[in-house]
Each structure stands twice: as C-alpha cells, then as structure tokens.
Amino acid sequence: MPEEHDTASARAGKSPKPNKPYPEFPLFPHATKRWAKKIRGQLHYFGPWADPDGALKKYLAEKDALHAGRKPREVSAGVTVKDVCNQFLNTKKAAVESGELTQRSWEDYKSACEVVIAHFGKSRLADDVGPDDFAAVRATLAKRLGPVSLGNTIQRVRSVFKFATDNGLVTRPVLYGQSFKRPTRKTIRVERAKRGPKLFSAAEVRAMIDGATVRVGDAEPELVRPGRAVRAMVLLGINCGFGNADCGRLPRAAVDLDRGVIDYPRPKTGIPRRCVLWPETVAAIREAGAARPEPTDPADADLVFVTKYGRPWAKDTADPTLAKEFKKLLRALRIDTRKGVGFYTLRHTFRTAADESKDQPAVDYVMGHEVAHMSSHYRETISDERLRAVADHVRNWVFGGAGA
C-alpha cells in the first residue's frame, strides 16, 4: 500500500514519493524528486515534486514535440510561427502600400500563412519546423488542390520561411526536405491533358460578342445580351489578349480610339504592350463609354470601365466582378464552364490563334510577354503594321468562317 511504501522509504532515510494530485494526472513521481513520463522509450522530466501544476504545464507545452520525436524548446527561446507570419504579412503590406505588390498577391500570401498556422499551430516555434512537417503539409494540400494551385501554395509557404531565414527570425536555415517541392512539369501536363484545352472556338467567341444563342428545345433563338462594358471587354480579351485585371484597370489615357490603338503596360509585370484595335472593338468601347456611370470614387475617374454601381470591375480579391459576370454569360450561352475556364481563357484563345500569324515577336509584344532572348534586348519597338497583321489574323479567325 502507498502509506506502507512511504513509511518504509522514510525508515530507509529516503523522501517519500508523493501521490498523484488526481488519478488522471499524466506524470509519475520519479526517485529524482521530479515528475516524469516515459515517451517513445525515454524518460522525460517536467519539474519538482513540490510543483505538480508547473510540471503539468510544461508537459502539455512539450508533449506534441516529444511524442513526434522532436526536441522541445521553450516558447521564450525563439520566434513562433505566428510571429513569422505576422512580420511577413506586415512587410508585404508595406509593399502593397508602395505599389510594389498587388492587394490580390497579399491575399494569396495571407492564405499561405493561414495554411502554415493551421498545420503547425500558432505557438509552434519556427526553429522547430522541419522536413517531416512540410511533407505532412504537402500531403494534406495535395488532397484538395490541383497541381498548379499546389505548386503556387508551396512556393508561397517557402517564401514565408525564407523571410524568416533572411531576417534572422530563426537560428538556422529552414529545412524543407525532398518532399516539399512543386509538382513536376510532367504532372502538370498530365493534369491539363485530362481537363482538356482552355480554349474557346470562334463560334463561341462570336456568340459572346453577338449575345445570341439557341438553347436545346427552344423554337426560337434566345437573345442573351451582355452589358455594354462586358461586350467591350470580351472584344479586348480576344482582340488584344487582355485578362481580367487588364480590362478592369484600363486607364483612359492608354486608349486612342481615333487611331485605334492601346498602349498599356501589363499591370501584373509592367512590361510594355501595344495593340491595334478592330473596328468592332473601337465601336464597343465607344458604346460602353457613352453609357458609363460616374465612378463613386474620384480615384477611379480615369478608368475606361466601371460597373453600373460606379465601381471598378477589377478587385484585389479572389471574387472579381468581371469573372462572375463572364461566368453568367457562359452559362446563358451554354458554353464550357468547367473549372479553370473563364474570362482569362480569352487570352489563351487569342494567343493560340495569333501564333498562326507566324510573327512571334509581334504576338509577344501584344501579349506583354518578356522573352529571354538576346534579340528582345535590342528590339526597342515593333511597327503598327506588324501589330495590325496579328490583329487582322485573329479577327479573320473569329469572323471569317461561320463554321469555325
């Protein structure tokens, strides 16, 4: 019995071991006068007999690391994962305010930080994160993300911990292990092959522009009219390879409708870009401009397009207005609405059709693509005649054959 044991210990000149404070207490009194527990075959000590509450607190703080086979550290001994994420996001927010980073990119980094905190815990020391942890994160993300999204998230998580290393928030470089890598190009190619090409046919593009379709079972064609601004932006998408942000942030100063050209560096990269406009595109922009409401924010006064509520079409969020309106148009026209197919698919379609013009440098210039080639370094501009030839080639593809 415990009483007899303690009495015997006292007669032998030893301090009697205390009883557990309560039956479920996870530690036991060790002969070294400390509370202890055997974990993974090894004894660990958490504090003196006289302080069972302190010993329990230390055990609870260290148990996850010990059961995982890691060396625990005191929280005060380093910076936590939450601290790293907060400092990282604050630095990126400053970049947004200085115009070096978009708000949308900041939102993406914030999502990556949420992934980090969800998997590691906000009180986990950044120094304590290792290859096994990153492998577990990747395995979890791979269950819900496609290869491209997975690769982007992995890269952003790496950016967070590179920031920690570069800014001395950890005592050693963070080790990711061999598993925490982006999917291979082969994996991405196979996945894209399964989904099929992100392209619209010429007939589908004409339907978006004209706003007319015949639904199965209908006796008469049903008109599905996109708004003036949406129609103009669809034309910019297929005429100039513009994406959502290109259209939503297009300034009036970049558009010369009298000459039928747009000079507009890409908002995403700042790379110069010039496009010769079709007559249909010029007319659509004029029509949209005539019906354009006054912007609610004076800062948006120079935008070519604003919504009927007077707000920008481009938003720095994962739920942009133009993307939603375009999806509505696709559904109404019974055009492909699978995941990954949206307004940006017009840019893919333009590039595919434009490449058949066989003037690669001119197409790159319209797209705003920077090509890592010596000739690009020396080429200062491309004539409007070449740009017009590219525009005419795509226009002929869209309107030249009704069966296309």
Task: Briefly summarize what is shown.
48% of the residues lie in helices and 7% in strands. With 404 residues, it is mainly α.
What features would you highlight for this structure?
disordered N terminus, mainly alpha, 404 residues, three-stranded antiparallel sheet, DNA polymerase, domain 1, 3 domains, hpI Integrase, Chain A, 16 helices
Number of domains: 3
- Percent strand equals 5-15%
Radius of gyration over all CA atoms, rounded? 31 Å
**What sort of overall outline do the alpha carbons produce when their principal axes are compared?**
elongated
The helicity comes to 40-55%
Mean pLDDT, all residues: 84
Order of helices and strands: HEEEHHHHHHHEEHHEEEHHHHHH
- Helix and strand content put the structural class at mainly alpha
Spatial order of the strands in the main sheet?
Answer: 1-2-3
Spans with pLDDT under 50 lasting ≥5 residues? 1-5, 7-12, 213-217, 374-379
How many β strands by DSSP? 8
CATH superfamily of the largest domain: Intergrase catalytic core
Q: How many helical stretches?
A: 16
| CATH domain class of the largest domain | Mainly Alpha
CATH topology of the largest domain: hpI Integrase, Chain A
Largest sheet: 3 strands, antiparallel
What is the end-to-end distance? 93 Å
Please give the CATH architecture of the largest domain.
Orthogonal Bundle
Write the layout of secondary structure elements.
Blueprint: H1 2-11, E1 28-29, E2 34-39, E3 42-48, H2 52-67, H3 81-97, H4 103-120, H5 131-142, H6 147-166, H7 185-195, H8 202-210, E4 212-213, E5 222-223, H9 228-240, H10 244-248, E6 255-256, E7 261-263, E8 274-276, H11 279-290, H12 321-332, H13 345-354, H14 360-367, H15 374-378, H16 384-399
Antiparallel strand pairs: 1-2, 2-3, 4-5, 6-7, 7-8
Helix pairs in contact: 3-4, 4-6, 8-9, 9-11, 9-13
